[in-house]
Design brief:
By secondary structure, the chain is mainly β. It is built from one helix and 29 strands. A 13-stranded parallel beta sheet has the order 3-5-7-9-11-13-15-17-19-21-23-25-28, with no helix packed on it. It has a four-stranded mixed beta sheet with strand order 1-2-4-6, with no helix packed on it.
């Protein structure tokens, strides 16, 4: 029995099953907040592997995990080239700086608070990507996100032309000034506190749009919003004649003084504290 295996057994009072050249543990393996620094070569974990806030610095090349891997708050700076994660991969507030080209994650990946600056071109994620608070500046050209994409508080200044997001896209507090013409977001679009000044004519958003405290000055003529539209604190002075909002529209702290005759709003209209009329 090697030293590392003995260390795991001592921490958790368990036995690792050995089959040929692999070590097996059938259930969840919780090593969080322990002083473990390495794992046995050829380790297979049937459930989740939790190494959060441990002293782990590397992962073995042939690690196999049936569930999720939690590396939050660790000193991990790189991952094995052949790593495949069936569930979620949490690398938030770790020392990770780059991801393997062939990394595959079946669930969510959380990279928030890391020093990551780019994603691999062939990056594959089954659900959401959280890049909030990172140093990311660009995204792969053909990135498609099945869940949410969170870029809040990053240095991102532009998005790929063919970006597709199946749920919510969070861009609050970024350096974004424009959106791709063919951007498709099936959920909510959060552009609050960005430098955005206009929206594409054919923008497709499935739910709400938050443009609060942006530099937006005008909206596309035929904009249709399936959820809420938040324009509070913007420089907008007029609304398109055919604007349609199925939820609420927030116009507080704007200079709008009149509403279009054909404006369609399904919910509430939150007005500035000034006189209003229909035009």
């Amino acid at each position: 029995m090697n030293t590392i295996e003995t260390e795991i057994e001592k921490i958790l009072h368990i036995k690792l099953e050995k089959r040929e050249n692999r070590y097996y543990y059938p259930d969840d393996l919780d090593l969080s907040e322990t002083r473990i620094t390495t794992l046995p070569e050829n380790l297979s974990v049937g459930g989740d592997l939790d190494l959060s806030y441990s002293d782990i610095t590397t992962l073995p090349e042939n690690l196999s995990v049936g569930g999720s891997i939690n590396l939050c708050g660790t000193r991990i700076s790189s991952l094995p080239n052949n790593l495949s994660v069936e569930g979620n991969l949490d690398l938030s507030y770790s020392d990770i700086t780059a991801l393997p080209e062939s990394l595959s994650v079946g669930g969510n990946i959380d990279l928030s608070g890391t020093r990551i600056t780019a994603l691999p071109e062939n990056f594959s994620v089954g659900r959401s990507i959280d890049l909030s608070g990172t140093d990311i500046t660009t995204l792969p050209d053909n990135l498609s996100v099945e869940g949410d994409l969170d870029l809040c508080g990053t240095r991102i200044s532009s998005l790929p032309e063919n970006l597709s997001v199946e749920r919510d896209l969070y861009l609050c507090g970024t350096h974004i000034t424009a959106l791709p013409e063919n951007l498709s977001v099936k959920g909510n679009l959060d552009l609050s506190e960005t430098r955005i000044s206009s929206l594409p004519e054919n923008l497709s958003v499935g739910e709400s749009i938050d443009l609060s405290r942006t530099c937006i000055t005008a909206l596309p003529e035929n904009l249709s919003v399936e959820g809420n539209l938040n324009l509070s604190g913007t420089r907008i002075t007029a609304l398109p004649e055919n604007l349609s909002v199925k939820g609420d529209i927030d116009l507080s702290e704007t200079c709008i003084t009149a509403l279009p005759q054909k404006l369609s709003v399904g919910g509430k209209i939150i007005l500035p504290g000034s006189f209003f009329s229909k035009v």
